[in-house]
Design goal:
The protein contains four helices and six strands.
Length: 131
């Protein structure tokens, strides 16, 4: 089973299968916080948001997300300014980017999510109305 603790090991051992990916994941865009965010989403279970590093895109996660989709609803966005998301002149500070992700997950109907970011340890993120 793929867990949040062994995600990088599994990714190193997995080949990307475009057909399998297309059967599980769909590309979407959402208008949030004044930008268009592109994201891929698929799977079943508790939501997990996979945030890429700089200057990567959601594609960084392509090898691992099919396995994660067996147990999680996986959301892998392109953060503002990268990939297929819009590229505004400003708003690249941590607070604004965090607000982008908050609004995206809220627009998808999630109030509690898991976030995986390659430069950090596992973070549980609780989203409450009005915060």
């Amino acid at each position: 089973m793929v867990s949040l603790s062994n995600i990088q090991t599994v990714a190193q051992m997995t080949e990307f299968n475009p057909e399998e990916f297309a059967n599980t994941f769909k590309h979407h865009t959402a208008s949030v916080n004044g930008v268009q965010l592109h994201y891929v989403m698929g799977g079943k279970g508790d939501p997990i948001v996979l945030l890429h590093g700089w200057p990567q895109t959601w594609y960084e996660w392509r090898k691992i997300i099919p396995a994660l989709a067996e147990n999680y609803t996986v959301i892998a966005p392109d953060m503002r300014g990268l990939g297929d998301s819009s590229k505004p002149d400003g708003g690249y500070d941590k607070r604004t980017v965090a607000e982008d992700i908050y609004q995206l997950t809220k627009s998808l109907g999630f109030h509690q999510i898991n976030i995986k970011y390659p430069e950090l340890q596992r973070i549980c993120f609780f989203i409450e109305e009005g915060k």
